[in-house]
Write a structure and sequence with these properties.
Layout: H1 2-31, H2 42-76, H3 83-90, E1 105-106, H4 108-113, E2 119-122, E3 125-128, H5 130-157, H6 159-177, H7 182-206, H8 211-235, E4 244-246, E5 257-259, H9 266-286, E6 289-291, E7 297-300, H10 304-320, H11 325-336, H12 343-351, H13 355-388, H14 391-401, H15 404-420, H16 425-447, H17 455-482, H18 486-515, H19 519-536, H20 547-555, H21 568-598, H22 603-612, H23 622-645, H24 654-708, H25 712-725, H26 730-737, H27 742-755, H28 760-771, H29 776-789, H30 794-813, H31 817-844, H32 858-879
Antiparallel strand pairs: 1-2, 2-3, 4-5, 6-7
Transmembrane segments: 12-36, 42-65, 156-177, 189-207, 214-242, 262-282, 391-418, 424-443, 455-477, 489-510, 572-599, 619-637, 673-694
Subcellular location: Membrane
Organism: Paenibacillus rhizoplanae
């Protein structure tokens, strides 16, 4: 009883803890701009890792208590018994269990096969006929294969948190071996620790009894919040900062405004909306059924759950054909009385003494059958309405994002899924016609005003189109499912016309962006070429977290602006090399294989993530990783649900359990030790990560407070405290160095440079510090290092020229003509290099010169001053 209690309470705790964690992560992702900025995540990560630590500690306590109770019962000799464990494993009652007295009837097989009761259990013993045994054993073979398939899927799904932990280990290796950016590496380590724990919670939730419903609720809540908040920001006056991205360039936006939603970036927002749209489209298409006039099913695709049940039923029916006629009559006669009927009673029934009762029973059965069919039709209508309801907001948000990449990724993912299941073409045509047409109408209406709508008319327009799309979709779905012949062909033509009209309305507006040259695509080509060259310098392990962000100014071949490499795969390659990319690809392969085996309807949204992330920086958003990790867990939960509904009779597993019992007992102790060690390590890591997040949060908070202060003394104190909390932050070190004397400022910058060897701001500040000194050699060295980290910085090059000129003038005023001449010579050399680079860039044309790198007119005046200074120093030296 105590073991059952621990298992029961432990399962409830797992479900509750996983549900709260998943919901909290989704809510935080919506409020924190999709987890794009790590600085905004510090507070959340502190609480998240603390929660993980508490949950793992609680799991350790429950695990230890359960093991202690098992050991205690074993010492007392109670665990050696066979009857109670076998009945408990078989699903029977145990004294003290909630199931009550032992009397369990197996009705799963008869539900699937549509036959009479085959097996009746009384006190754990089965009273069966020969036909019943054969039928049940046949179903056991089918269902046993389903159970083994789910076990394989469960083994695969553990690759998700496992691969995330491998990536964490790679970032930890970089953190201790000196990365290009220590702060960026620790940020990525905290990120991937969060992804690993989230994947673990999702996998644990998928294994619970209500796991499918829980994961589905998290998914749909995320989708509706993200889509409706964006649409209300446009149509309903919801104050959502940066929900609309404005641009005057027709190459970026035809309408001049693009919907960005909570993510504040239209391309990523469009990709996320494509993910949710395809999930709902294929879910509705998978549930599409063709009905006859009476409401019976003529032919259906059915959902995955119904497909699994029908396969099990077919298997039982095949074995049920072997039952002899006499045995069927015996079972039927026993079933008519609800139990064991005497021989005399059977003869009376056979002789017709209860014909009136039989006729009455037949009438009641017919009425019950009609009521059941009506209830099924109502339930199916409700399910269809629920599937169609979110389609319009997802489609409208996707179109308003005006993301060509998201549109193409959605189309490619849908086409790939249709190649695997071509029979879904007609259901997709039906279910998506009305929502897509209404979304296109909303897009055309809002495009005329640049996504600027008055609140009341905008809300009325949004609500009217949504209601119209929903009702029209239900009507079309119902009519097509019941129509035949020419009527069905006409309705299909109507649906195809709606799709064509929607596509034409959108393409006529954006055809210039689609058919014309794309400067953004050309810019991505530059990013990718420069990134490949940079990745070749450290191909195996990369350079640590945020490599592109801290090195693109040094690696760029043209003066573009792009702190993101616009490819998730390249970003991982730069950070972790081939080792990290292999871990990510294994994670994606495991997710894809699991979704393909367990729930193919979830493949299209997964394809969208994989495709669009190759051409944009979606993986910089933590929200995208949450969706990617949620999909395979959800697929596993659906597979578990199907297996649970078609579970084999427990008697089939009794002998197998008895044979494996000694082996389980021999392996129990090593597994228990590994369980203790694993839970303890996880608990320690979560508490360590919580402390790191708290330190980074305190440092960031003190830095923001220092920026708002006007008193330099208070600023110095706050910045010093911030560095004590987080010494890896280069921004804090640069700000503090500007308030300190020369020597202290240089020492602080050099210490900070050891944490971030490639930081542009630190190099620039060191160059400025040495230019204010009196050694032209050191100044020239740091100026060149600064220019190597930021190649196309025209303002920095001009500042370096002025610094060299001022240093030479100071040296000449102090009487040191040699230093003045050296400063002038160094300045002229820097000016020569600047002029050559500017001339080369001018020959290439203005395209991709986003930083406006050119030779400033002030350079000519500086050149005359430098040559004059050089001549003065030389003349003074010759006169002397």
């Amino acid at each position: 009883m105590q073991i059952n209690r621990f298992r029961q309470y432990g399962g409830m705790a797992v479900t509750l803890g996983c549900g709260l964690a998943l919901i909290a992560a989704g809510a935080a992702a919506c409020m924190l701009r999709g987890f794009f900025f790590v600085g905004e995540m510090y507070l959340f990560l502190t609480g998240w890792y603390a929660l993980c630590g508490v949950l793992t500690l609680g799991g350790l306590v429950l695990y230890a208590a359960s093991s202690w109770e098992m050991r205690k019962l074993k010492l007392k000799g109670k665990l050696a018994g066979k009857a109670e464990p076998v009945r408990a494993l078989a699903g029977g009652g145990v004294k003290g269990d909630t199931g009550g007295p032992v009397k369990r009837e197996i009705t799963e097989a008869e539900r699937l096969a549509g036959s009479k009761r085959l097996v009746t259990y009384h006190g754990g013993r089965a009273a069966t006929t020969r036909a019943a045994v054969e039928a049940v054993s046949g179903s056991g073979r089918v269902l046993g294969g389903s159970v083994s398939r789910v076990r394989r899927l469960k083994a695969i799904v553990w690759l998700l948190p496992g691969c995330c932990m491998v990536i964490c280990i790679l970032y930890a290796i970089h953190a201790f071996r000196g990365p290009l950016s220590s702060q960026g590496t620790w940020n990525e380590l905290l990120r991937w620790g969060f992804y690993a724990s989230y994947a673990l919670f999702a996998v644990l939730a998928a294994g619970t009894r209500r796991g499918g419903a829980l994961l589905a609720a998290v998914w749909h809540l995320l989708g509706l919040v993200i889509s409706l908040s964006a649409l209300l920001a446009v149509c309903g006056g919801l104050p959502l900062p940066y929900a609309v991205a404005y641009s005057q360039s027709p190459e970026v936006s035809v309408t001049g405004a693009r919907l960005a939603g909570l993510l504040q970036y239209p391309n990523a927002f469009g990709a996320v909306m494509a993910v949710f749209l395809l999930e709902r489209l294929f879910s509705a298409a998978s549930g599409f059924k063709l009905m006859g006039p009476s409401g019976t099913v003529n032919g259906e695709e059915g959902t995955e759950e119904e497909g699994g049940a029908s396969r099990g039923a077919a298997s039982l029916e095949e074995h049920g054909e072997e039952v002899s006629r006499a045995e069927q009559e015996n079972i039927a006669s026993s079933e008519a009385e609800g139990g064991t009927v005497s021989r005399t009673g059977q003869e009376n029934i056979a002789s017709g003494e209860v014909k009136g009762e039989a006729l009455s029973s037949a009438g009641e059965t017919a009425i019950a059958g009609r009521e059941e069919r009506a209830w099924r039709r109502t339930a199916e209508l409700m399910r269809t309405a629920a599937r169609l309801l979110p389609l319009f907001p997802y489609a409208a948000a996707l179109l308003l994002s005006e993301s060509r990449g998201a549109w193409l990724a959605a189309a490619a993912a849908g086409a790939a899924a249709l190649l695997l299941k071509r029979q879904l073409f007609v259901p997709l045509l039906i279910t998506g016609a009305a929502p897509v047409a209404a979304a296109a109408l909303l897009y055309r209406q809002l495009a005329r005003s640049g996504l600027a709508a008055e609140p009341l008319p905008g809300l009325l327009l949004l609500a009217g189109l949504w209601a119209g799309a929903w009702l029209a979709g239900l009507w079309l779905h119902r009519r097509v499912s019941r129509a035949a012949g020419k009527h069905r062909a006409a309705l299909l033509a109507l649906a195809a016309g709606a799709w064509t009209a929607a596509g034409s309305a959108v393409l006529l507006l954006v055809r210039a962006r689609i058919t014309g040259p794309s400067p953004t695509a050309d810019a991505r080509g530059l990013f990718y070429r420069d990134a490949w060259k940079l990745a070749a310098e450290a191909p195996w392990l990369g350079r640590g977290g945020e490599t592109w962000r801290h090195t693109y100014l040094a690696a760029q071949s043209r003066p573009y602006v792009g702190t993101q490499v616009h490819s998730g795969y390249l970003d991982i390659l730069l950070n972790l090399g081939m080792a990290g990319l292999a871990a990510v690809l294994l994670l994606l392969l495991a997710a894809g294989g699991l979704v393909f085996k367990a729930s193919p309807r979830l493949l299209p949204p997964l394809f969208v993530i994989l495709l669009h992330s190759a051409v944009d920086f979606d993986w910089s958003y933590g929200l995208v990783w949450l969706l990617l990790l949620l999909l395979p867990a959800w697929a596993l939960a659906e597979a578990n649900s199907r297996t649970a509904r078609t579970a084999a009779p427990p008697a089939l597993y009794d002998s197998r359990w008895q044979r494996s019992k000694p082996t389980v007992q021999r392996r129990k102790r090593p597994r228990r030790l590994w369980g203790y060690a694993g839970i303890s390590v996880l608990c320690g890591l979560t508490l360590l990560f919580s402390g790191l997040s708290f330190q980074a949060m305190k440092g960031a908070a003190l830095f923001k407070q220092a920026v708002r202060e006007n008193d330099p003394a208070v600023q110095i104190t706050l910045l010093q405290q911030s560095l004590r909390w987080n010494p890896r932050e280069p921004q804090t070190a640069v700000a503090l160095s500007r308030l300190l004397p020369q020597k202290q400022g240089v020492d602080l910058l050099l210490r900070s440079l050891s944490f971030s060897p490639g930081n542009v701001a630190i190099h620039g500040e060191l160059a400025a510090r040495y230019l204010r000194g009196s050694d032209p050699g050191e100044a020239l060295y740091w100026v060149r290092r600064s220019q190597q980290t930021d190649h196309f910085n025209a303002a920095g090059r001009l500042a370096a020229l002025r610094g060299m000129l001022e240093m030479g003038e100071r040296s000449l005023a102090e009487g040191d003509r040699r230093l003045a001449a050296d400063s002038a010579a160094a300045g002229l050399e820097l000016l020569r290099q600047y002029s050559l680079l500017a001339a080369k860039e001018q020959e290439r044309g203005p395209q991709h010169n986003d930083r406006n790198f050119t030779l400033f007119p002030q350079s000519k005046g500086i050149y005359f001053h430098l040559t004059h200074l050089q001549s003065q120093a030389a003349l003074s030296s010759s006169n002397r």
